[in-house]
């Protein structure tokens, strides 16, 4: 079969859905060749968030069954995976799960007792992570206080093991645990000591070029996939950047889904010194991704339109100009990501009056989220020494033309929209197979009047944001560990 006729099977392991889809040889989705399993995390009042591992994996396998039933699992040349970062499962001595999947949104933790000589700034520069509950340096001590585990693994590691029989991880997924020495691509000794484990308790790290194949059980179940190489998973943030077409240090990708992020992919060799405010993970053996993430984005839009019962055209801020609303929204409903320690339930609206409408509140919220993302973009501009080009991607971008215009004005530069919605799957294929996708969408320049209004709004937002941060730490109901 000619290479151009070959197809790629991509598995995308998200927090709200697990998907299996088929891509062409250049990583474009094959029309109709997508199956989705909805994921519903379970939440608790003490900050718990869990995913049912068995249900998750069986749902994903069902997606493959659906693709086969519809004739889409033929001519597959490669199997690639994109996965959420930061998940963890505690395992017993036989490799059986002792806990559900703990995803990034879980806020449970325990305090650490560290030697006074510990230098978190040096640790952050080396691992790209902080000692935050998001990472295994904090997750493992918390889990160890609950269950006597023999080892730990992430969701993508266990999915890969289920498919191939081999429990390994990639340098990209390992970097999201906060236990990787970014420069060497090996587990960091100090991070392991903080977590209270050794390398033998964690999945071995395999190089980007490693492949395996389906176990005999699944080779019988999906005959068209017999002998097809299965590639190591790529963290969803890294995959999304590459999938939008932002695969070098000239371009930042802004992706807006449930949460949001701004990131730049660059070589790990000679990487600029990492500022304290930014994180850094690995894309593959040769590249890293540096950026900032934000907890309020598409979830903010979905929440507010539901609360205000905004439907149809009113799911956009109809009649409100970008930057014009007098209401200032600080989008801390889900708190902030590290190194800031603003807890959840800290969202604030300033300047409300009786003549404000649902459209005003929605515009203020989207504007606030845009200004948050802009903080990260400007830090990346400074880090890489030039104004970065910007590619916009993700479901939130696709859903709101007003938000795209708002982001473009807030960034004060032209932006290019990625025309492909499945950027994670596309990026996983690109990383595994050495492809370089392009955005493919329209480029928009900021409107002058929008620029002027946002420039006037910005200092007010920054002042009120500082007040919201201060208040979040002074209110007693928000007293939680970072």
TrEMBL record:
Annotated Carbohydrate kinase FGGY C-terminal domain ranges read: 253-432
Q: Which SUPFAM superfamilies match?
A: Actin-like ATPase domain (SSF53067)
User: Matching InterPro entries, A to Z?
Assistant: ATPase_NBD, Carb_kinase_FGGY, FGGY_C, FGGY_Carb_Kinase, FGGY_N
| Residue span(s) of domain Carbohydrate kinase FGGY N-terminal | 8-243
Q: Which UniProt keywords are given for this protein, alphabetically ordered?
A: Kinase, Transferase
Family recorded in the similarity comment? Belongs to the FGGY kinase family.
User: Protein name, please?
Assistant: Gluconokinase
Source organism per UniProt: Kribbella orskensis
């Amino acid at each position: 079969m000619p290479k151009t006729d070959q197809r790629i099977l991509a598995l995308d392991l998200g927090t709200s859905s697990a998907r299996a889809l088929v891509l062409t040889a250049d990583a474009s989705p094959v029309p109709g060749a997508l199956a989705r399993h909805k994921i519903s995390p379970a939440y608790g009042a003490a900050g718990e968030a869990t995913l049912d591992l068995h249900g998750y994996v069986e749902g994903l396998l069902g997606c493959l069954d659906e693709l086969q039933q519809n004739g889409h699992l033929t001519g597959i040349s490669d199997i690639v995976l994109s996965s959420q970062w930061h998940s963890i499962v505690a395992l017993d001595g036989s490799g059986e799960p002792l806990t559900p999947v703990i995803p990034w949104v879980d806020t449970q933790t325990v305090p650490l007792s560290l030697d006074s000589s510990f230098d978190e700034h040096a640790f952050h520069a080396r691992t790209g992570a902080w000692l935050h509950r998001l990472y295994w340096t904090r997750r493992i001590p918390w889990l160890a206080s609950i269950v006597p585990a023999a080892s730990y693994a992430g969701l993508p590691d266990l999915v890969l093991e289920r498919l191939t029989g081999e429990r390994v991880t990639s340098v990209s997924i390992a970097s999201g645990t906060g236990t990787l020495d970014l420069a060497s691509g090996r587990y960091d000794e100090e991070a392991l000591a903080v977590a209270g484990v050794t390398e033998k308790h964690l999945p071995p790290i395999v190089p980007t070029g490693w492949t395996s194949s389906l176990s005999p059980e699944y080779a019988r179940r999906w005959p068209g996939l017999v002998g097809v190489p299965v590639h190591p998973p790529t963290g969803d943030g890294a995959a999304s950047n590459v999938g939008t077409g932002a695969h070098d240090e000239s371009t930042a990708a802004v992706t807006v889904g449930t949460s949001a992020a701004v990131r730049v992919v660059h070589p790990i060799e000679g990487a600029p010194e990492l500022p304290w405010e930014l994180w850094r993970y690995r894309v593959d053996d040769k590249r890293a991704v540096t950026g900032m993430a934000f907890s309020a984005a598409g979830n903010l839009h979905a929440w507010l339109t539901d609360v205000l019962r905004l439907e149809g055209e009113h799911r956009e801020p109809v009649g409100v100009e970008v930057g014009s609303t007098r209401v200032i929204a600080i989008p801390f409903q889900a708190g902030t990501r590290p190194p800031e320690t603003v807890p959840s339930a800290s969202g604030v609206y300033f300047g409300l009056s009786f003549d404000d409408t649902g459209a005003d509140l929605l515009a203020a919220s989207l504007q606030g989220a845009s200004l948050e993302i802009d903080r990260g973009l400007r830090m990346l501009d400074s880090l890489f020494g030039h104004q970065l080009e910007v590619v916009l991607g993700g479901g939130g971008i696709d859903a709101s033309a007003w938000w795209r215009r708002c982001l473009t004005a807030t960034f004060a530069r032209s932006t290019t929209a990625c025309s492909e919605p499945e950027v994670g799957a596309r990026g996983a294929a690109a990383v595994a197979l050495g492809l370089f996708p392009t955005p493919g969408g329209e480029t928009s320049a900021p409107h002058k009047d929008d620029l002027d209004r946002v420039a006037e709004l910005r200092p007010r937002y920054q002042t009120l944001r500082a007040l919201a941060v201060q208040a979040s730490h002074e209110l007693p109901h928000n007293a939680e560990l970072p």
